[in-house]
Amino acid sequence: GENVEQHPSTLSVQEGDSAVIKCTYSDSASNYFPWYKQELGKRPQLIIDIRSNVGEKKDQRIAVTLNKTAKHFSLHITETQPEDSAVYFCAASINYGQNFVFGPGTRLSVLP
Amino acid sequence: KAGVTQTPRYLIKTRGQQVTLSCSPISGHRSVSWYQQTPGQGLQFLFEYFSETQRNKGNFPGRFSGRQFSNSRSEMNVSTLELGDSALYLCASSLMGDTDTQYFGPGTRLTVL
Questions:
Q1: Which is higher by pLDDT, A93 or B72?
Q2: What is the sign of the dihedral through the CA atoms of A57, A63, A68 and A69?
Q3: Cβ–Cβ of A105/B104 closer than 8 Å?
Q4: Which residue from A87, A110, B22, B62 lies 20 to 30 Å from B47 (Cα-Cα)?
Q5: How far apart are CA B47 and CA B19, in angstroms?
Q6: Interface residue B45 vs chain A (CB under 8 A)
Q7: How many interface pairs between A and B have CB atoms less than 8 angstroms apart?
Q8: How would you write the pLDDT of chain A (112 residues) with one tens digit per residue?
């Protein structure tokens, strides 16, 4: 079955700097890759996603890149702010949304 | 539109008991997925229901079961509770399941004593 690895497990950056989180997946049939942000005590919230027919997607300060050949995708956050501090989860799915497999999460801390 | 709701929000049970959790998806959503979240194992997929049928299943023992009703509301049942079942149980709904975006509910925090 699918296996998703995520690195780093923790990341601290200074406010205003960029943060990059990388995930690798094992099943080449995976075709949908969402990223979720989970603040302490709250539910995961979808922040951006990408499908396998697209190499990059951007939404304001957040971007995701996908390398299908290498089977990895990355989340890029620019101009980080303290409110970006949270745990970020990547996920991979076959059939565009069925049977998600999540990465273990990255705890991002943005230091003022 | 109202979001995904889950009841109850908190639950305390003892070993050997059984528990039923409920999830109401966003109106119009037909796919409901269930996840278990623990500090050690992260987010793990339990199962997905679509049109009252279990369409996908994760690697959990048969003690974990679910169902979906004609109005797309879903329930999850755990029988013979074990200490290791203590977790946050999240459900997520999407329109069809095969059109990606899932929206999570607030979760039910289950504590097994």
A1: B72
A2: positive
A3: no
A4: A87
A5: 17
A6: yes
A7: 64
A8: 789 999 999 999 999 999 999 999 999 989 889 999 999 888 999 999 998 888 999 999 999 999 999 999 999 999 999 999 999 999 998 765 567 889 999 999 999 9
Q: Is residue B102 within 8 Å of residue B33, measured between CB atoms? A: yes
CB neighbours of residue B73 within 10 Å? 17
β-strands B31-38, B87-94 pairing: antiparallel
Which tokens hold the place of B108? 């039910």
User: Which residues neighbour A69 within 8 Å (Cβ) at sequence distance 6 or greater?
Assistant: none
Separation CA B31–CA B51 (nearest Å): 7
Q: Are A46 and B102 in contact (CB under 8 A)?
A: yes
Look-up of token digits 């049928």: B53
Look at the block and give the residue holding tokens 């990547």. A90
Q: What is the rounded CA–CA span in Å between residue B95 and residue B30? A: 5
What residues of chain B lie within 8 A of the CB of A98, using their CB? 31, 48, 55-56, 97-98
Buried b (16+ CB within 10 A) or exposed e, A56-91: eeeeeebbbbbeeeebbbbbbbeebeeebbbbbbbb
Distance (Å, whole) CA A101 – CA B43: 8
State phi, psi for B83 to the nearest 5 degrees. -55, -35
* Interface residue A42 vs chain B (CB under 8 A): yes
**Which pair of structure tokens corresponds to residue B89?**
């149980």
- Residue B41 identity: Q
